[in-house]
Fold this protein.
Amino acid sequence: MGLQRPVEPFHRPYAGPEPPAPGRRPRRLIAVLAAAVALAAAVVATVLVVSGGRGQEAAPRRTPGGPSQPPAARPPGSPGSQGKVIGALPAPCGTVAAATVERAVPKAARRQSANSTLTTCTYSSTGSAFRWLRVEAHLYAPGDTATPVQDAEGYYDAQWAQAHDAPLVRTVTLERRDGLGDEAYRWFKTDEGQPTVVGQVTARVRNAVFTVSYSEQAPRRGPADARERACLDTATAAAREVLAALSHS
């Protein structure tokens, strides 16, 4: 027997490992993920719709004695946003006719003060310390500010807000009033420190804001509310004359 030929080793060509077959996601998991995405999109859409709707709602109206709320937005082109501004205030005691003063406060003593942006005039009864008529006017002059009407609007809004939180008074009525300038409100109140009732009108005409207050002694018999109409009518009559004087300034 001859020598056996050694067995040559078999050389297999090298090939890299084959990638594993991609696993299949369970159909149930895919369905859950799709539902979650759809739910998130629906929530976002709902929030956008609600937010947009709220931005167009009118500001709620304040009620006497309730919490202060932002003033209602003025629509573009509303009275007061256009027109000629007032250049100067009339004489402090020159806005209400003598006959009107005599009916409100007979034989009144007069006291006044004035500068370029604020005037006050007070008519006091010589027979009663509780009876008086006061006129106060604020002017936002175009020479002092680039936005006189907007500044007057801001001051008016501040007065309206403060009326809801006034200390030492009891508010009987507090309401907006149409037909007096660009915007106005009337306020009837009783003074908790004095036996008086006060009817007050605050109004804005373009870049000026004025307040007329009429005070008299509270009735000794019966509720103080009984003088509401008379006091507010007196203050409103004087306010109309102030408005006419300012409109011609």
